[in-house]
Amino acid sequence: MDALARKIIYAHGGLDRWKTFNTLTAHLRQGGVLWPLKGYGGKLDETNVTVGLGREWASHSPFGPEGKVSRFEPGRVEIRDATGKIVDELDKPRASFAGHTLETPWTEPQLAYFAGIAMWTYLNMPFLLAAPGVVCRSVGAWKEKGETWQKLEVTFPPDIATHSTVQTLYVDDAGLLKRHDYDVEIAGNTPGAHYIGGYVEVQGLRFPTKRRIYPRQPDGTSLAEPLVVSIDLSDIRLA
Known about the structure:
Distance between the termini: 27 Å
CATH class: Mainly Beta
CATH architecture: Clam
Number of helices: 4
Number of strands: 13
Helix content: 10-25%
Structural class: mainly beta
Shape: globular
Strand content: 35-45%
Order of helices and strands: HHEHEEEEEHEEEEEEE
Number of domains: 1
Largest sheet: 10 strands, antiparallel
């Protein structure tokens, strides 16, 4: 494994500790222009998410004010009502985004897919760096906000559903995440700069609680607006 990847994993509590848990649950407060742009303003403003650690799945509850519950896996999305009955479903969900741009509205299962891949990726990072088939490469330094961060290029294998095949992490001297870049392939390869902070320690592991995502320009700098997505996490629990 790349030496910088090892440093990042160690700074967040270490792989051995991570492997003692199977799931992570957190409370989310979310905002930003993406949700209304896709036709779902307010739907996931306040919810809870549970993700698998290692095995890729995620569930949002409630999934909207009606008390629905979503279940995302790379090959299938299900939405159930408050009684547990399936009310919507989508097989091979990634293929359904073919031809989409940033402005293309989503169906509810597509929303569940996006929210699923996003939160599974974010909450499994940086331990995903040690997953089979993931390739990491240090790509030098980056200066921003009066600091110097180290950059790690991460290439994901086809069996991991995430925003884009190639992503970039930026970390401080302690190995903590400061920024995470990717192109949202299912929204016309829209480039994002995802800022990370507000670390807390939970059950021996370190997690950021504040995430802010802005447009990324071709030179790697980010725009100050619009705020595409905001995510604030609380009540993080591992089991």
